[in-house]
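Bench notes, afternoon.
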Amino acid sequence: MAWRIHDSVVQGVIDNRVRGAVTGQLWLVGRAAPLQLRLRGNACGDLAGCELSFERVQPDTLIATSLAMIQEGVVGEMTASRKARLHSVSTADPGGAAVPVERIRPPRLANVLFLEWYSERNGRVVLESADFNMRVSEHAWSLSAVEEEEQRRANAAALREFMRRLAE
């Protein structure tokens, strides 16, 4: 089971400019102070060595969450370049009636923000959404091919450890 928090996040900043550490802040709906991230590990190659800031495009449908305010733990997968096909209709359909085929737009390919970590207090936490405007800084450093493979293995190990704890 994972905490899926994309419907609670208004904006955020994720910073991996220091090797081996991801810090950040997430502003959640209904909270005065931002949630703090203090994680061990690195983001994927597109965000490793960078600071990512993002804000929700349409914050009107957000839902509050009871996630702990301090998130300490291990980085899972963190990328701003996951691809997804997004479907939409040409206009909003009032009343929830069936949408005529001619009003359905062809799907478009979009970057999806995917942030995953394993919190010591909350377990697996995931933010996955294409509903954010994102800005990524220049790379302060980059992962080598060997380091990227090591990070993928560390992500898999973090997931296995989470599942082991869940089974207990």
